[in-house]
Design brief:
Blueprint lengths: L1 H4 L2 E8 L7 E9 L11 E6 L6 E11 L5 H4 L4 E9 L11 E7 L1
Antiparallel strand pairs: 1-2, 1-6, 3-4, 4-5
Amino acid sequence: MEDLCSMTLWLTVWDTRQLGHNMFLGEVRIQLDSIQINTLKPMWWQLQHLEDSHFRGSILLGLMYCPSPDDKKKKKTCLKLKVVEARDLPLMDNNRTNPYSALIPL
């Protein structure tokens, strides 16, 4: 659990494009030691842009730490992430957005 709590989760949100490259919409970085992670109760997080701090919408996430039964022996940890919803995302092609997210542990 201590290793997990010292990590930062980096969640990025992208717009799916049929032709060409997908477009970056925003990101959120979550310091796991700053939140309670023993429940999947969702919390709203504001998305930011890589190059500036402008508001890029919000994403509703639930995070929960799940120790294995033999956590002390094998030192296995699990973190469940539930993406519930997003709102106020920037509109892209034809005034709509086709979002998906990517998660990177840091």
